Amino acid sequence: MNPDQFRDALAGDGVLLMGVVNVTPDSFSDGGRYYELDAAVAHGLRMVDDGADIVDVGGESTRPGAEPVSVEEELRRVVPVVRDLRSAGIAVSIDTRHAVVAEAAVAAGACLVNDVSGLRDPSMRAVAAGHDVPAVAMHMPVDDPAVMQQHTDYDDVVRDVISFLREHAALALAEGVPSVILDPGIGFGKTVEQNVQLVRQLDVLVALGHPVMLGASRKRFIGLLAGVEQPEDRVAGTLAVHLAGVQRGARLVRAHDVAAHRQALTMWSHVNG
Questions:
Q1: Reduced to 3 states, what is the DSSP secondary structure of residue 160?
Q2: CATH number for the domain including 204?
Q3: What are the catalytic residues?
Q4: Number of domains in the chain
Q5: Nearest by Cα to 24 from 96, 65, 71, 74
Q6: Which domain holds residue 168?
Q7: Which of 114, 136, 204, 226 could form a disulfide with 237 if both were Cys (CB 3.0 to 4.6 A apart)?
Q8: For the whole model, what pTM was predicted?
Q9: What ranges in the chain are assigned the alpha helix state H?
């Protein structure tokens, strides 16, 4: 799927699959495996072959306690990967919370900005608006993944997440961002039970009228609930969570295990008509 096809598909119906390429040495699920340019590009191409509609490239680990990365280093990691994947005709997303990185990645061909800090930064909204690219606003209680798990004291997690996303989506649209995808931020400043609540009530977020993305892939709460220690062994649990989200109206699924998700989504579509 090329960028124009992705944008058309986003405006239509059906579930889109986003593959994850972590160009980092320390991501929780596959840190270091795709850190070099050739390995990252090859992984992205393989994901498209396996059925990904768009590939999400990130150069900063956002796991709790991760070491901060300078903007210069993040740029060095992601821009060549974005450029090479886009040159291959692929729709590419940039996963960053820094406007400077988003700007460079969009200039290199990214057609979606995926901001884990929820489009809090006016400069990030300006990048998406200035380049006329859609953006993902993800909920995280603070703009610092290293300490996000210290901020899980919500009055009502579903209500608070929806309020945050509604407000930041409205700001982005008012400032010219063409469309906003909402992501409840599973695992980002949430307890195990709060993650479950957000998936159970995802239809309430969907009711706001924006496309909703769910990204629970290999996350710790699945390991804790299912008794699976290693992230790469959490594929079945991930599929269960993501299909529950799709059943409740999620339009995009962000996943590490693309082939398994493509098969599951294909069968879900057949079974549900």
A1: helix
A2: 3.20.20.20
A3: 219, 254
A4: 1
A5: 74
A6: 3-272
A7: 226
A8: 0.93
A9: 3-11, 37-50, 71-87, 99-107, 122-131, 157-174, 192-200, 202-206, 220-226, 235-247, 258-272
